[in-house]
Design a protein that fits this description.
single chain; 300 residues; alpha+beta; 4-stranded mixed beta sheet; 11 helices; 12 strands; 44% helix; Glyas_Fos-R_dOase_dom; Catechol 2,3-dioxygenase-like lactoylglutathione lyase family enzyme; VOC_core; GlyoxalaseI/FosfomycinResist
Length: 300
């Protein structure tokens, strides 16, 4: 964003009272400046950043405090240029009741349907993401009330967002699961299961709670439920042999195969190429005493 034009735009917004209007995170001017900075960080082009800086000039559907009357659009065009001003108008005229569910545009000032170009649509989504992220970061109540709906909206439109903006959306609005802590196997014979996973796969048996049994490996564990005596709450239909697990090993797969063969554990399939959570893996398959399918894999 050209420094002189940015200064002119800030001066314009200040002259219209933006520095005195309260807004989550301080004043409206501060919010607008943060939105423009966020767009810059995301690599938005100059016109989109100008539009982000001035997006509230005509008010919005949800913040209808106008800094400039619609009859005076020429003033904003003179300040930020025609393309940026057109994006400001598109943002301001958006009827959210129509747009947010289905990305269908209706001009709330005229009532007429609007068909933005692909470039305008992408710019609208980027400005919307920067705006909503800044608002909810500074107002927990708005986050609580509208966060789930905004996440659903951006998820439907994620193909229009660059990856860096989509990551920011997820970080702000989504529940982020970091890792799997433990899973539960319902088994016919806990002692037999412990022997298998200890001897065949090197897991460590542990006792916890009121005599409960588990198997630890890495930073995860498998809790064991005795079939017919499951700990509540439990799966709706707990049943031995219904699981299908993939375990990542740091041992060479040929060494794993040799160990399993020596332990009398049949290899049902593999080594075969597969795809794991982080990319290509090579896997072999065995079954535990309850006939759960166990995939043992290494990343290529």
């Amino acid at each position: 964003m050209a420094a002189d034009t940015f200064t002119d735009s800030t001066t314009f917004l200040t002259s219209k009272g933006a520095a005195e209007i309260p807004h989550p995170g301080g004043t409206l001017l501060q919010h607008l400046q943060r939105v423009a900075a966020q767009l810059k960080d995301w690599g938005a082009d100059e016109d989109v950043r100008f539009a982000g800086l001035c997006h509230a000039t005509y008010g919005t559907d949800g913040y209808d405090r106008r800094l400039l009357d619609l009859t005076d659009r020429a003033t904003l065009i003179e300040t930020i240029g025609s393309r940026a001003e057109a994006l400001v108008y598109l943002y301001a005229s958006c009827d959210r009741a129509a747009t947010y569910p289905a990305l269908r545009f209706v001009d709330r000032f005229t009532g007429r349907p609007v068909e933005p170009s692909d470039a305008e649509l992408a710019a609208f989504l980027l400005i919307t993401a920067a705006n909503e992220i800044d608002v909810v970061r500074h107002n927990a109540d708005i986050r609580a009330e509208h966060g789930a709906g905004l996440h659903a909206f951006f998820t439907r439109c994620r193909h229009l967002l660059p990856p860096i903006a989509w990551e920011a959306v997820k970080e702000t609005f989504a529940v982020r699961i970091a890792s799997l802590d433990h899973l539960v196997l319902t088994v016919a014979d806990i002692s037999r299961t412990i022997d298998f996973y200890r001897d065949a796969l090197g897991m460590e048996p542990v006792a916890f709670g009121d005599g409960r049994q588990a198997l630890t490996f890495g930073s995860s564990k498998i809790n064991l439920h005795q079939a017919g005596h499951e700990i509540r709450p439990h799966a709706l239909h707990p049943e031995p042999g219904s699981a299908d697990l993939c375990l990542i090993t740091s041992s060479p797969l040929h060494q794993v195969a040799a160990h399993l063969t020596a332990a009398g554990v049949p290899i049902e399939a593999g080594p075969v190429p597969r795809t794991g959570a982080l990319g290509p893996i090579t896997s072999l398959y065995i079954r535990d005493p309850d006939h759960n399918l166990i995939e043992i894999a290494t990343y290529d």
